[in-house]
């Protein structure tokens, strides 16, 4: 379907929408929709687009009626959660209806007997963690921002810094309620741990980025709590030594929650931005290793083993953060790092999160750095990432007057390197708008044909988050 076949939201549609959700939650004033024309990718992509109308339903029934109305009238819908995505997945590029789930936050029901939680899609991850922890349980998955909504976190299959040990959001979703593009409501899975009944539509929805339906409610598996995480901070004089130590840690049967690879410049820039001092000053690169356990003894035992491995791999210093203030400071600096401080005078044309086998990280960093340095651009290399699971945020920043064609060539060559090393063009950000050209290079024609077929089967009118994921 082409975008010019979509219909605009006219006065008759507006009246029907008001009948469904009430006049207060049908918004057409542009000043009130400024935050709904973009997501966090807009900070570097500059891509923004106002919807024709912003709708804020409260119930699944209301969402079903809105979607049915849109489908019958060929009006595109962009589902919206916390708008924390980095690939344009929540930008309403065809206008139409922006459907925010922010009022779909009525319930968080912790089932202590089954060790699960039922939660509305509009609940923030921060509120979910708080409710679960009050019952002395835990949800180990932890995306970088707690402002993301549960529904958005599932629909993008988010992960974060501790995915090495705890996996992705997919590993915790046992059931979801979904509004399909025709307005039908289906329930997939439930409070069961094993379910082997045909194709898994549940897992097809997870990570589909709102292109196959709108997740309105979820059932998530919980776990007993562990001790709060501690961090081992290990600087290395050589970047190569730091990254080569990662598989050695894992091979020694020490499974940290996560291992972050942080280079000197990102650390220094983030220190200034956060006005917090990093605990060690030495080294060209540092490993920030998160560990947890059932008690302090288990944590300290893991820390000692990790320190031994790092010393064997030329670590030049060691710091174990155990105090709450130390831990919070480290977390804050790492969060600020994702905002790329200190690069205000340069442009980031893409925000890559390549994923490669852990053993190939040194080669990947070496080759991508060489490509940038050997290009005719004036780009600056800026790298950090989840080294424990191979998800590296290898960024490049360029002066505004740099050669855009040459910049694109750098990006193309980086993609080629990732694929050659057995990697992926995205480890956690997803595809959205901006990853589609990369997806076409990474996936085979047959895989893309199957994906397009799935999209057409679920959404023949192509109204559900069109222009995202599928080329």
Compact overview of the structure:
The chain is of the alpha+beta class and 471 residues long. It is 34% helix and 17% strand.
| CATH architecture title of the domain at 108-221 | 2-Layer Sandwich
Q: Order of strands across the widest beta sheet? A: 13-10-12-11-15-16-14
Determine the CATH topology of the domain at 108-221. Uridine Diphospho-n-acetylenolpyruvylglucosamine Reductase, domain 3
Report the radius of gyration as a whole number of Å: 23 Å
Question: How helix-rich are the residues, as a percent range?
Answer: 25-40%
CATH class of the domain at 108-221: Alpha Beta
Contiguous low-pLDDT stretches (5 residues minimum) are none
Query: In percent terms, what proportion of residues is strand?
Result: 15-25%
Largest pleated sheet: 7 strands, antiparallel
Q: Structural class of the helix and strand makeup?
A: alpha+beta
User: How many extended strands?
Assistant: 16
Mean pLDDT equals 92
């Amino acid at each position: 379907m082409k975008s010019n076949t979509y219909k605009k939201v006219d006065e008759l549609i507006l009246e029907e929408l008001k009948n469904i959700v009430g006049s207060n939650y049908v918004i057409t004033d542009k000043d009130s929709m400024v935050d709904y024309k973009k997501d966090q990718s807009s900070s570097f992509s500059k891509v923004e687009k106002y919807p024709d109308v912003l709708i804020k339903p409260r119930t699944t029934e209301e969402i079903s009626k809105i979607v049915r109305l849109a489908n019958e009238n060929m009006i595109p819908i962009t589902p919206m959660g916390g708008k924390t995505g980095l690939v344009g997945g929540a930008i309403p590029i065809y206008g139409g209806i922006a459907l925010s789930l922010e009022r779909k936050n009525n319930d968080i029901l912790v089932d202590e007997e089954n060790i699960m939680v039922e939660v509305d899609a509009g609940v923030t991850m921060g509120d979910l963690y708080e409710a679960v922890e009050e019952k002395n349980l835990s949800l180990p998955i932890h995306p970088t921002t707690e402002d993301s909504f549960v529904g958005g976190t599932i629909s993008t299959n988010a992960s974060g810094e501790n995915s090495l040990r705890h996996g992705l959001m997919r590993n915790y979703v046992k059931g979801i309620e979904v509004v399909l593009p025709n307005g039908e409501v289906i329930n997939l899975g439930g409070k069961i741990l094993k379910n082997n009944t045909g194709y898994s539509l549940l897992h097809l929805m997870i990570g589909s980025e709102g292109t196959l339906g709108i997740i309105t409610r979820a059932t998530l598996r919980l776990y007993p709590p562990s001790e709060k995480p501690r961090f081992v901070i290990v600087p290395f004089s050589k970047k190569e030594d730091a990254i080569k130590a990662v598989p050695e840690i894992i091979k020694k049967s020490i499974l940290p929650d996560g291992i972050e690879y942080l280079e000197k410049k990102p650390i220094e820039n983030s220190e200034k931005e956060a006005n917090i001092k990093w605990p060690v000053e030495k080294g060209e690169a540092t490993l920030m290793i998160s560990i947890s356990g059932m008690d302090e003894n288990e944590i300290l035992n893991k820390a000692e083993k990790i320190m031994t491995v790092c010393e064997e791999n030329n670590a030049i210093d060691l710091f174990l953060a155990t105090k709450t203030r130390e831990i919070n400071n480290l977390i804050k600096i790492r969060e600020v790092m994702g905002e790329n401080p200190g690069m205000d005078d340069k442009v980031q044309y893409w925000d890559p999160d390549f994923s490669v086998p852990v053993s190939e990280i040194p080669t990947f960093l070496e080759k991508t750095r060489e490509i940038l340095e050997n290009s005719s651009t004036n780009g600056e290399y800026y790298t950090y990432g989840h080294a424990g699971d191979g998800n590296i945020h290898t960024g490049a920043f360029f002066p505004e007057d740099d050669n855009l064609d040459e910049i694109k060539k750098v990006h193309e060559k980086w993609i080629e390197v990732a694929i050659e090393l057995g990697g992926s063009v995205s480890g956690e950000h997803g595809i959205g708008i901006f990853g589609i050209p990369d997806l076409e290079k990474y996936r085979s024609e047959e895989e893309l044909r199957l994906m397009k077929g799935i999209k057409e089967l679920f959404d023949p009118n192509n109204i559900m988050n069109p222009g995202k994921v599928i080329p």
